[in-house]
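chain below, 182 aa
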Amino acid sequence: MGELKPHLSLWRQGLGVVPDELWLRTDLQTLVLADNNLTEVSERVGDLSKLRMLDLGHNRLRELPVSLGRLERSDFLYLHDNRLARLPDSLSRLQRLRYLNISNNAFEVLPEVVTTMGRLIELRVRDNRLTELPPSISRLTSLRELHLRNNRLATLPDSIRAMRELRQVDLRGNPVTSLPEV
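prediction:
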């Protein structure tokens, strides 16, 4: 029998439910469960403590397990194209996270927990229902790219001026009426 590889893609396999044996693969560093009509993810996902990248995009998730916060080695988290309106506070433990995609969900407010992810370099929150960003967004001092296309933002908080690494802000498709002075 061959050696198990630490990367597993089950993209577009029509799973509906994640097989229980998957949660035994504690060696995994990359796991792609995108586009599988998933409506839930087991709390056992937190047992995959070596994960560096998790892709749960293109599913039907309305909530996430609290145990996602145990994936403290994660660099990349894809949660786009689901039905999420909130994120568990436990995600504040993902202090290594560099990329977060929560686009195409049902967020009306940027979850406060996102602003605790101080190492984020790229944040994608496109195609949601955001009407404002919290002033605490300025805590994302490493952020370089902020993708906010197709929301309901009329302005940005003045605190965004403190984000010295920010290089790209995509506001297309928002009813922007004013921006903070630079």
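The two ends are 60 Å apart (CA to CA). The longest strand covers residues 7-9.
thats it, cya
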